[in-house]
Structures are given as C-alpha cells and as structure tokens.
UniProtKB/TrEMBL annotation:
Pfam families: Cytidylate_kin2. This is Histidine kinase. It comes from the Bacteria.
C-alpha cells in the first residue's frame, strides 16, 4: 500500500507523468475526481471548490473563512480516498493537503518555460505572448494560494521528497525514477501509518461536518476518541458542546468526544457592577 502525490505548475506534463506512473504501478490516478466527490457529498458547486483550491485569497477572503471551509471539505474527501492506498494524486494543492500524512512519496515536477509556453499555445490556441501571460498569471495565483495557506511557496523543496526537472529528463525517465523510488521501504505503509491516516481521515470528516458553524475548530482523533478544540473562548460552553454533539450525531465510529473550550463569561463580580 503506497501513496504518491505529484505537484507541478500548469503545462508541466504532470498529468502525463501521473497517469503513466499509475499505469505502471497498477495504482488509481486521482485529480479532479476528488472535487466531484466533494461537490456531491457537501452539495457545493464544483467551480466554487476549484476556485478555493486555485485562486489566491483576495483582501475580503483574508478576513473570512470561506476558502478554509471548502478546503476542509476537499481534504476530507481526499484523505478518505487515500486511506485505501495505492493512489497517485496530481490534483491542486496536493503538497498542502497531505503535508502531515505519513509515508507519502511527494514529488515536484519542473518543466522548462519554453516547453510550457508551447503547450499552452497548442492547448489554448493562443499566441506566444498570450500563452506567457496566462502562465505567469497562473503561477502568481498558485504562489499566492500556497503562501497564504501553507506559509511556503510551492517551489520550496522542503515540501517534497523528490524534485525532478524535465528540462534534460524525458517523461519516461521521470516515470521510471518515481516508480523506483516508491519501492523504498520508507514509502511502504506500515500498520501504524495506515492507522494514522485512518485517524486523520476520520478527523477530517468531523472537521468538514463542523466547518460551516465552527470553522476554527481543531479536530484530532485516535481510534474513535475525538478531541475538539475551539481556539476562541466561548460563552455557553454546555450549549456549544450540545450543538457540536448534535452536528456529529450521524457520524458512525465516534466512541468518545473530549472538548477543549475556554469560557469567556464575565466574572460574577463584573456582572453585578
């Protein structure tokens, strides 16, 4: 059981590499399928989800939780697919959504700008000037998104186990390198790693359920024992606990919920002044 994520800029042959790797290994290849599953499950339009994963936040969005809500939903759908194993994921924000998932082979593919421009010209039937402008805008959006949500740039090598530059390496050679690397013991799922990703997927499911009302909730889970932390102090803690418990009533597998909520109720002396 193994998982591979492939990150790349637009028109960098990432889809071709991902599909070839999946075919060679007999893995499932996922990208936009995750958005379709998220849209169906949470009744959110796919273009809205795509925008949440692609566009850098504008000024208003920096002070509202809109994108974070959609990303929580997408992460839930992705982790619940990844826990099945033997998957190559090359969708947007893979480097962000799986940062804490253990024993995942994280790949970054680089392509020469001249080759990217040619592909964009052919794909969009546009001039070289227009193709360069489109790619520059695309790169800016992805960098803005990653810098805001990940606090690092997508080109930062620390996010990846292997960075492959296609300028001097063919796609076939790139595929072979990835297929050879995934056979390393460190990228083979142990029982412990499998259990960890199952817990992460379960916590993500709970987070996605709570996110429309409690978007700042921090959720962890271990074998059905769930911890829910609300960073901001709350009034009416018992009421809040009851609301959260009701929201999660349809999720099977929760054995125990521990709440970490601080009160912001006024002291009794202050209330009587």
């Amino acid at each position: 059981m193994s998982i591979i994520t492939i990150s790349r800029a637009s028109c960098s042959k990432g889809r071709i590499v991902a599909e070839s790797v999946a075919e060679n290994l007999g893995f499932e290849c996922l990208s936009r399928e995750i958005l379709l599953e998220t849209a169906d499950r949470f009744n959110v339009p796919q273009p809205t989800l795509m925008k949440a994963l692609h566009d850098g936040p504008n000024l208003i969005e920096r002070f509202s939780p809109g994108k974070e809500r959609y990303i929580a939903m997408i992460k839930s759908a992705l982790l619940n697919r990844l826990k099945m194993g033997n998957i190559v994921y090359h969708g947007l924000a893979g480097h962000f959504l799986v940062r804490e998932v253990p024993q995942v082979l994280k790949i970054r593919i680089l392509a020469d700008m001249k080759d990217r421009v040619i592909e964009e010209m052919q794909r969009g039937q546009v001039s070289e000037v227009m193709a360069r402008a489109r790619l520059a805008q695309e790169d800016r959006e992805r960098s803005s998104w990653s810098n805001y949500f990940c606090k690092v740039m997508p080109s930062d090598s620390e996010l990846y186990d292997l960075v492959i530059n296609l300028k001097e390496i063919s796609t076939d050679e790139c595929v072979a390198m990835i297929c050879n690397t995934i056979t390393m013991e460190k990228f083979t799922f142990t029982d412990e790693a499998r259990k960890q990703i199952e817990d992460m997927a379960f916590a993500a499911t709970i987070k996605a359920t709570l996110v429309t009302k409690y978007d700042t909730a921090i959720v962890t889970s271990r074998s059905g024992r769930v911890v829910i932390k609300l960073p901001q102090p709350m009034r009416g803690i018992e009421k809040t606990k009851g609301e959260i418990t009701d929201l999660l009533s349809d999720i099977h597998g929760i054995h125990q919920i521990h709440f970490d909520i601080k009160s912001n109720a006024l002291p009794r002396t202050a209330m009587h002044k």
